[in-house]
Automatic annotation (TrEMBL):
Keyword Flavoprotein: yes
Coiled-coil ranges per UniProt: none
Protein species of origin: Rhizobium calliandrae
A Pfam family per the record: FAD_binding_3
Protein name: FAD-dependent monooxygenase
Length: 387
């Protein structure tokens, strides 16, 4: 029979969305978060139409509309010449083609909107400062303090709940480092487009920039190859690490290298992903979001996949016997995640191309109109999650 109560481990985007999606079906959701307060990890993020339509269904989108930016387009630009290589239209085009908006915002803005909705929902309960040891089932049940039909691991790439899933995925370093920082819009060079998401491309490196409207700032993420230094996602970069970063951007346009040289407080962010593996234990434990399938950010779909997971899981466990629901959820979601991994890998290859491959990339993209490039994304952005 369908479940009545779920315990959610982790109060990030996946966990909060799962609570709201379950409550929509009349299922009680109890969220446990080990942090004493919810703070953002990362700065900006992009919410594509496949995710924004879910947020609209959960009555969260209205809180975001006045705050986020709907970019005019997503632009691919040469990091050396600053020449526009290609673009995909967004704005009103996204609404018309994919039926929902494309937005860029601060991660904390989305988290607050989800949190406010959770706190206002009588079927949702949030416990902060509650560390959970999932390997001790008796202690876990005592912590939950009531019978939960389902445990949802929404605790990220370093998931502890994953230990309850035999044959589950495991994290590993991707070989990529992200450097992230924000700069006030008033101090940003004119090189940074005020209306769009821009990906500056170069050999073995790329840089993403877009305005964060609610903060009057730009979100900047530079991604390069690098060595593993542990799982700290928010450490300040050392002098040696900054020099490593700048070497990857040597030969780029001076406006870009000058911007990077000024950022002494940019954070160092090793990028981890997880291997393929089972997402559930066949009985009463399921992984969602990064806990199940953390991937590289080259398709800008990490948050969107967490939102899709949460929404579609809720629909299945609220209407089907639990074991069947968990199995159908994984079988339904896994092919989409696998395809997105392939897309992200292709984007990394294309973004970081060098030599003749780079020249061929630029030529092929230049010959394709924006609407044709948009059509390639219909399967991503036009997806309608079932919940």
């Amino acid at each position: 029979m369908p479940i009545k109560t779920a315990a959610i481990i982790g109060a990030g985007i996946a966990g909060l969305t799962a609570a709201l999606a379950l409550a929509r079906h009349g299922v009680r959701a109890i969220i446990f978060e080990q942090a004493e307060a919810l703070t953002e990890v990362g700065a900006g993020l992009q919410i594509s139409p496949n995710a924004s339509r879910i947020l609209d269904t959960l009555s969260v989108l209205d809180a975001l509309r006045p705050l986020w930016l709907e970019p005019k387009e997503v632009r691919l630009v040469s990091g050396s010449s600053l020449r526009l290589i290609a673009s995909v239209p967004c704005g009103s085009f996204a609404r018309e083609r994919w039926g929902s908006p494309y937005g860029a915002l601060h991660r904390a803005t989305l988290q607050k909107a989800l949190l406010d909705a959770v706190m206002a929902n009588p079927l949702c309960t949030l416990h902060l400062g509650r560390s959970i040891d999932p390997t001790n089932r008796e202690a876990l049940e005592a912590t939950i303090a009531e019978d939960a039909d389902l445990i949802i691991g929404a605790d990220g790439v370093w998931s502890k709940v994953r230990s309850l899933v035999p044959g589950g995925p495991s994290p590993h370093f991707s070989g990529n480092i992200a450097w992230r920082f924000t700069i006030p819009e008033a101090l940003a060079p004119r090189t940074l487009d005020r209306t769009s998401v821009t990906a500056f491309l170069g050999p073995s490196a790329h840089l993403i920039s877009y305005p964060i409207k609610e903060n009057a700032a730009f979100n900047i993420v530079a991604i390069i190859s690098g060595s593993n230094t542990g799982n700290d996602w928010s450490g300040a970069a050392t002098k040696v690490q900054r020099e490593h970063l700048l070497r990857h951007f040597s030969g780029w346009n001076g406006a870009i290298t000058g911007l990077l040289e000024q950022q002494e407080k940019a954070t160092f962010w090793p990028l981890y992903q997880v291997s393929a593996g089972h997402w559930h234990n066949g009985k009463d434990v399921i992984l969602i979001g990064d806990a199940a399938h953390a991937m590289m950010p080259f398709a800008a779909q990490g948050a969107a996949m967490a939102i899709e997971d949460a929404f579609e899981l809720a629909g299945k466990v609220a209407s089907l016997p639990l074991a069947e629901a968990l199995d159908l959820f994984e079988k339904h979601r896994a092919p989409r995640i696998a395809r997105l991994r392939q897309r992200a890998a292709f984007n990394q290859f294309a973004y970081h191309a060098r030599g003749p491959v780079r020249l061929a990339r630029d030529l092929v993209l230049a010959l394709r109109p924006p609407q044709s490039l948009a059509a390639d994304l219909d399967w991503v952005y036009g997806y309608h999650a079932t919940g």
